[in-house]
Amino acid sequence: MAASNVNTADLYDERGDELDSVALQFQSLGGHTHFSGPVRTIRCFQDNSLVKSTLATPGDGAVLVVDGAGSLGTALMGDLIAASAVANGWAGVVINGAIRDRTAIAVLPLGVKALGSNPRKSAKAGAGESDLELEIDGVVIRPGAMIWCDPDGILVER
Questions:
Q1: Rounded to an integer, what distance in angstroms lies between the CA atom of residue 19 and that of residue 139?
Q2: Closest CA to 27 of 103, 98, 107
């Protein structure tokens, strides 16, 4: 089974003790329902400048995990940024927050998990940090760790 088509339930059955499961209920919003790769991270709050600039760089099959503090107040990614991610070889994006342009994003060849959507744009002040350890729903997510996502959920290498 190709890495991008791994079912998280089967992977957990095989490697359970080596993996953490994010229980927070993310929605599957991209054109690829199954995606995986090494993690890159960003922490930001209602400002998507780092998301945009990071996804405009070569992704090499990585998954960008964005901790937006669970805010649904503004979108941290829209269709143009998602299209940039596709063009630059990212496997997917996991956003602990909102996206926008979900209909357009749903047809892109990109894995996208987010809490929901909001048409409101985010700030563009450049606030945030990248390449740091995140904790989402009690699960530690380190840059370089493997992450697997599908409609059942999100698994992260410990």
A1: 10
A2: 98
